[in-house]
Amino acid sequence: MPSTHLVVLDAHSAIGALHAQSGNCVLASGPSKHPILECSELSLDHHYFIYVVRAFIDKHGKPSSQKLHIPQHAVIAIYHISGDESPTSIGFTA
């Protein structure tokens, strides 16, 4: 099983609010619903942004990928999932 990263966005940030509208996968914390992005690639090499790649189905029903640069201030937590192991936090846990 390939490794996966779960990136939890702050629902109060601009990018978090945008992804929360899709309602795909959210983490509820009180009245806030923080969106979660399932990513196949992740890089923390930049000082201000996190680079992620996530798979999705385009409007024509074809598999595609989306590459995003997410501002670090918009991220609440990042979890790494590999195989049957429990998810481990790799940073940004609020």
The class by helix and strand makeup works out as mainly beta
Shape: globular
Distance between the termini: 28 Å
Number of strands: 8
Radius of gyration: 13 Å
* Order of the strands making up the biggest sheet: 2-3-1-7-8
Average pLDDT works out at 84
Major sheet characteristics: 5 strands, antiparallel
Query: Tally the helices: what do you get?
Result: 1
Strand content: over 45%
**Order of helices and strands, N to C?**
EHEEEEEEE
What proportion of the residues is helical, as a percent range? under 10%
- Spans of at least 5 consecutive residues whose pLDDT stays below 50 are none
Topology:
Blueprint: E1 4-9, H1 14-22, E2 26-29, E3 32-39, E4 41-43, E5 49-57, E6 63-71, E7 75-81, E8 88-91
Antiparallel strand pairs: 1-3, 1-7, 2-3, 4-5, 5-6, 7-8
